[in-house]
Design a protein that fits this description.
The complex is a heterodimer.
Chain A lengths: L4 H20 L2 H28 L6 H16 L4 H31 L4 H30 L19 H20 L4 H21 L1 H4 L15 H4 L3 H10 L3 H32 L2 H11 L1 H6 L4 H27 L9 H15 L4 H29 L8 H8 L4 H16 L9
Chain B lengths: L2 H37 L6 H22 L9 H30 L3 H22 L13 E3 L1 H8 L7 E2 H23 L1 H11 L1 H6 L4 H27 L3 H6 L1 H11 L4 H19 L3 H7 L18 H15 L11
Antiparallel strand pairs in B: 1-2
Helix pairs in contact in B: 1-6, 1-9, 1-11, 1-12, 1-13, 2-3, 2-4, 2-9, 3-4, 3-9, 6-7, 6-9, 7-9, 11-12, 11-14, 12-14
The chains are: A mainly alpha, B mainly alpha.
Amino acid sequence: MSVNWRNIFLFAVMGLALVMTGMYQSWTLALTILNMGLISSIMALGVNMQWGYAGLFNVGVMGYTALGGLAVVLIGMPPVGEAWSAGGLGVILGILIGIGTILAAIALWTRMAPGKLRVLALIAVLTGGFALNRYFFLPAAAAIESVNPASEGYLGGLGLPVLLSWPVGAVFAAAAAWLIGRIALGLRSDYLAIATLGISEIIINFLKNEDWLSRGVKNVVGLPRPVATPVEMRQYEFVFQMSQMTGIPINRMATIASMAGFALLFVLVLAILMWLAEKALNSPWGRMMRAIRDNETAARAMGKDVTKRHLNIFVLGSAVCGLAGAMMVTLDGQLNPGTYEPLRYTFLIWVMVIVGGQGNNWGAVLGGMLIWFLWVQVEPAGRWLAEVLTSGFGVDSAVRDHIMNNVAHMRLLTMGVAMLLVMRFSPRGLIPER
Amino acid sequence: MDPLNALLALTNFVLIPGIAYGSQLALGALGVTLIYGILRFANIAHGDVMAFGTMWVILGTWLLQSWGVSLGFLPTALLVLPFGIVITILYLLAADRLVFRFYRKQRVRPVTLVMASLGVMFVTNGLVRLIIGPGSQYFEDGERFIINVREFVAVTGFEEGVGLRTAQATTIIVALIVMAVLFWFLNRTRTGKSMRAYSDNEDLALLSGINPDRVVMVTWILAGGLAAIAGVLYGLDKGFRPFTYFQMLLPIFAAAIVGGLGNPMGAIAGGYIIALSEMTITYAWRRVVAHLAPEGWEPTNLLQVLSSDYNLAVSFAIMVLVLIFRPTGIFKGKTI
């Protein structure tokens, strides 16, 4: 494999942009952008697996990242004993009844002969199961939510090391993706788009409203961190020495060291994922995937089970998104379901994939870094532009005031235009597929 | 036992709001389904286009209000609606010219068009938020009620009252007129017939001399009109907020899919099915059942299947059921 100087140049420019941010704005900002950029890259990698390898259109990225975030709470937080004794049994019983009902309904549907009797039996099983589920579940959930609601009011987690939650987040997202994939794959591609869009909204609704599980919009804060906090960092000798050497105050140096710790972890995860993704893409499996993408009929004629393969890649890609979601919540140290917004967590990721280069893993990573960088930096630039454009209105004009108030939304417009332009004039993106 | 009062409560809390909401969904789903039938892709930007049209109507309403112009007991927005429709149509035609046409000429896979609509959605959403802001706007004016619950109770002497808001009545009447005109257009006029032919079999339609550019243009015009009307009616009824309009995409698509994507009749049926099931499943039935249950057997809990926070889940669940058991929809899809 020859060294691709163009790509190295593009990544170098990206790095330079971050270094410039560090030098002219602040190093903490540069590291914040870098950390979120790395996470965005991983999300873009997941979407690229689905879209770039297999041509699956998933607009539910937000849902999978949120599920990954939930995993951090469920794994990392200590269990709330009082809540468990108040309603743990009822909630688990309710969930088991729910699962049992669905399994019974499926068994009934496949075993019984078609006819009116089957429909009636199905309705009876579903209604009965649902009523039973509500009977056990609702009082239990209410009991849990009334346990010390200001700071707890939920079941808590397992109190395991927080890093364990990253693979678990991936598994959560994979499970949800499997369910959706079973329903919507094999139908027209537009159906998958709508189904994923729907499930992601529902997952967010679920996290916002099921307080016993995720504390809903009351947020879970103070999640355990895999990296020493800035306060802990201050005690380390090397932080002190670095501070002496660079002349940055010790407090800020400790923050930088803590963030850099995260960045190292994220780079490690990204490197492992990249290695796996590149191996997969260049293996017979990857070639088969691309063959399916380019001509489904031909691939089917060659005896490939297109729907099954689609399901594989859909689950894998979503798992990567879930992993990224868990990483993001770990970085933030809190889960706030109220902040998940599709434009930011689904559609921005799509812009990253398109701009970076569909079907190329390196492109997705570069797109993730670059678009996130622009997303953060465009806001001040947009403010400046709006100021210039509206200067004709006079300083205290109402129109100008109004536009300046909404100028933060400039970047949605910018991103949309950027996406459309890249799609139109350079559809293969910054780093095209080989 | 008091079935009459139960019926009144049902009408007031489920039927009237459900039918109004269903009309709004039906109009939205008609736009989606027309685009799907003719241009053959799922237009993700539709919800935001609705918001775009509504935004101009709101701005126009404010202007008229500042001039002191009004429509009496009807909302002023109806006066501005034609202006909103024209702007929305122009916007969609511009989007087609700048974005969609290029891909259509290349005969790309439908999913690329969906992707392009994603870009248009982003731009539209940005424009709306930039111009009017992300917050809620209420622009319903005129008389708020046609039938007031308290007056109804006072006049009839029933325990339960039925209220009819102007916005709800307007929605239902406007929706019926629009649907009638649309079906007349599709079934009776030459252009409408050529659209149906094009949707049925593109190649055959081209061979028989139908001008595809014209068909596509008319489709965008219809879609723009429907989007603006649906958006304004929804905004009058429930208030305008850009994010809600984006979220409406799900029930709208659910309605179109349930009825069969590409089938206008199906879109209308789907709209009402989705809206009424959302209402029935998230409504607390205690009040109705209390009237029906014998003395002393009144229910103690709310009898609500799902909290109304999950209304999206209802439309999604119905859509999933249809996708599993009848992927082409209740009416067979993809013919106009």
